[in-house]
Description:
The chain has no helices and 8 strands. A hairpin with a 2-residue loop joins strand 1 (6-12) and strand 2 (15-20). Helices cover 0% and strands 68% of the residues. The strands form 2 sheets. The chain has a 5-stranded antiparallel sheet with strand order 4-5-6-7-8, with no helix packed on it. Strands 1-2-3 form a 3-stranded antiparallel sheet, with no helix packed on it. By secondary structure, the chain is mostly beta strands. It has strands at residues 6-12, 15-20, 23-24, 26-31, 37-45, 48-57, 60-67, 72-79. The protein is globular and about 35 Å long. The model has no long low-confidence stretch (mean pLDDT 91).
Amino acid sequence: PYLKTFVVRSVADGRLEGTFYDTPIREGHLDTAWGAVRFAFVTEDGTGVYHTSGTLENGRLEGTTHSLGRGFLQVWSAVRAE
């Protein structure tokens, strides 16, 4: 497994704040309107912008990250660290 930390610092008024891949989240949004927690945000590093989105269901996160600068789409999943 390739493990990286996703830290959620705050969720308020539909906004999501934290870090992903040790990079600050920008433009974080959260929605609970369709029976699950869905979110999207942007991060950035030296290669460019990453668009990440995901869903929290049954204690598990699943999502995708699209790298504009590196030209890839990565599927990922996560569980809460102990």
